[in-house]
Structure prediction request, 132 residues.
Amino acid sequence: MAREKLLPKRVVRYIHETGVRSLDRLADSIGDGGAQPDAVQTLVQHWRAMTAEDKERFVDRVSAAVVEVVAASAVLPVKNAVKAARKVIKKQRKKLKKALKTKKKAAPPPRPKPKVKPKRKRRPKPPVAVGS
Prediction:
């Protein structure tokens, strides 16, 4: 995955520039080591011997690794939160199922519904003849 897509361009550029500046400062502040140079002194000696183009390529590689680490560390809490949320949901679902099961067992059996007789339709009364 391209490092430009992992983080904003400003952040990637800042990491690159900071890497160049910090290695230049480190090379200026550390003198030649004793009989056995440690890793930092070896790095400084190699840094001093590099051309400007080699320095840029080296810092590009290091900054690419730094960008990947920063992006991964930003995503890690989200992944952990999602994983924890899934666990909680699973536990709650299990509790609800169990509670529903015990409630069904403890509930009295349902009463049968009384049968309702349909009402009869009334016939209209025949008209009464008046006066005959």
Remarks:
- Residues 20 and 59 are 6 Å apart (CA to CA).
- DSSP finds four helices and no strands in the chain.
